[in-house]
Amino acid sequence: MTATTDAVVGVTTSPEPPTTPGRASRPSARDRFPGFALPALIWYAVFMIGPVLAMIVIGFLSWPGMLVQPGFAGLDNFSRVFADENFWTAAGNSALQIVVGLPVMIVLAFLLAFYVVQKPRGHKVLRYLLFVPALISAPATAMVFYAVLNPDGLLNGLLRPLGLDGAAWLADPSTALGAIVAVELWSGIGYSAVLIASRLDGVDAEIVQASRIDGAGDWRIAWGMYWPIARDFIGVVTMLQFLSMLFNSAQTVLLLTQGGPGTSTTTLSYLVYRKAFVETDLGYSQAVGLILFVLGLLGMGAIRRVLRATY
Amino acid sequence: MAGTARRPLLDRAGSITSGALAWIYAALLIVPLYYFIVSSFKTNEEIFESPLAFPSTWDFGNFTTAIDQADLVPAVANSALTTLGALVLTLLLALPASFALARSTGRLGKAVEGVFALGFLIPSFAALFPTFLLAALLGLFHTRAFVVLLLPATALPLSIVILTSFMRTIPRELEEAASMDGASALQVLRQVYLPICVPGIATVLLLNFLSFWNSYLYPLILIGPDTAQRTIQVALPTLKVDAGTDYGALMAGTLFTLLPVYLVYTVLQRQMQRALVSGAVKG
């Protein structure tokens, strides 16, 4: 058998390919109406779609506190948000987190995955380890890093014998955001690598061997073969991590720095949280939530264009 | 690739770089974890003075301190209760829905499937405040019960996508044979589909176990600080105090919250990895 590009395209990522069986039999009326899906649909509408719709409505309400009767505000919340310096700081922090953090995470995860699928010595141990951050909850991760990064913590303890002065990483405005991004990278790289490795595992070993015989080095095989083959799947992983960074950074920030010192670690998603539950400026909070939602969609579109382009 | 002749150094630059990166990252994973585990047996002074040293004595005092101070025992029970309740509810909702969607051939089924698939895009976190209002509206604010009702909704899109693709692989002939013998749709689901879908169900259970057990913001806001109701993830950060955190106790408490997950992972390692990969979602 000769390895063809068709063999590459035919590789599936999931262990069970979603095959569609031939629909030879005539469907009955019951088959056409998915009645059994109704309870799930209702549940989903009440607990997920409902709150999102409510978020959109509240974004246009003037609602300065829980006990205040809300009134219609039109676009006032948005003009208030856009005039607020804190919003732009938060937007900048989120942008930095994503523009710097996301490419670093994906490129490192890809290299890691490439290494693991070559089955070097110790790859089983490595695969086991890569999963560990995916198992640990956000509070547990945050508490470990709270201990690592405190002025008397592990990081400074390791720097001291090297003659370096550490810092109060989480309390210093110049390092706090970097520390938050580092924690996200720590927990995100391994998981992304495992996902990407599952895709690279499906690449036909024969074509890799063939190009080795033709004299291609590892670097070229990684970026010239594996990357293009896995590009659409890497796109999916990138979107996943993008959404997770954009929306879920609030928990890490809340647990480690509460947006401070000053506003140096206030990200957009943390701003949504703080405005809603600390300052009870509800219209403002949900207006930012709406902006976040739109940014999420725009970002996904952009990632799609970059990583799913036809090859 | 084993067995090939030694290649020149330049050719191997790629694997040397990625290999070095891989093992540096592995060290970055191991060192903090090692630090945190040994710290859970040490006092603050010992932790600060020699962060990587072995504890002088294996004293479990930090664990009892953590458990007492943050009321971890009821918190574990609450987490277990919430997770279990939400898992059962998720299956009760997702199984029939996936069954219906996998068998449906009409346009309506496609549309419903699309609605669930869109769920991946919903920033449920941004809608935390409306969810909080919903809890108040239902009279379930500051209760575990609301979280048990809410979590399955967050898990439905992924669970339905996985189960539907599993059920699509089941040949229709099997089902027709059962119907011919007079089985109702519910019986077909229970006696034909369920046994075949066991791996899919296991995947969904494991994935959701992780995300339910590890969820933080929803329980924090919706259940609140009541020690009789709060979950382990909410209880853990209370060990961190603004002035004078007892790091030993904090690390012991963290270790305590990880034990159930780690136990499940060790027993079901292969299934868990497969589940996480096919689920492609982060808790």
From TrEMBL, chain A:
Pfam short name (any one): BPD_transp_1
Chief localization: membrane
The species this protein was found in: Actinosynnema mirum (strain ATCC 29888 / DSM 43827 / JCM 3225 / NBRC 14064 / NCIMB 13271 / NRRL B-12336 / IMRU 3971 / 101)
SUPFAM superfamilies, per database record: MetI-like
Name this protein carries in UniProt: Binding-protein-dependent transport systems inner membrane component
Membrane topology, from the record: Multi-pass membrane protein
Biological processes per GO annotation: transmembrane transport
Region Disordered, annotated ranges: 1-29
A single cellular component GO annotation: plasma membrane
Gene3D superfamilies: MetI-like
Signal peptide region: none
InterPro entries for this protein: MetI-like (IPR000515), MetI-like_sf (IPR035906), UgpAE/MalFG_permease (IPR050809)
Segments passing through the bilayer: 36-63, 95-116, 128-149, 176-197, 229-247, 283-303
Residue ranges of every copy of the ABC transmembrane type-1 domain listed in the record: 91-303
Keywords of the record: Cell membrane, Membrane, Transmembrane, Transmembrane helix, Transport
From TrEMBL, chain B:
InterPro entries in UniProt: MetI-like, MetI-like_sf
Membrane topology listed for this record: Multi-pass membrane protein
Keyword match Transmembrane helix: yes
Entry GO terms, CC: plasma membrane
Domain (ABC transmembrane type-1) ranges: 76-268
Pfam families registered for this protein in UniProt: BPD_transp_1
Xref: CDD domains: TM_PBP2
Family according to the record: Belongs to the binding-protein-dependent transport system permease family.
PANTHER family found in the cross-reference section: ABC TRANSPORTER PERMEASE PROTEIN MG189-RELATED (PTHR43744:SF12), ABC TRANSPORTER PERMEASE PROTEIN MG189-RELATED-RELATED (PTHR43744)
Protein name, per record: Binding-protein-dependent transport systems inner membrane component
Source species: Actinosynnema mirum (strain ATCC 29888 / DSM 43827 / JCM 3225 / NBRC 14064 / NCIMB 13271 / NRRL B-12336 / IMRU 3971 / 101)
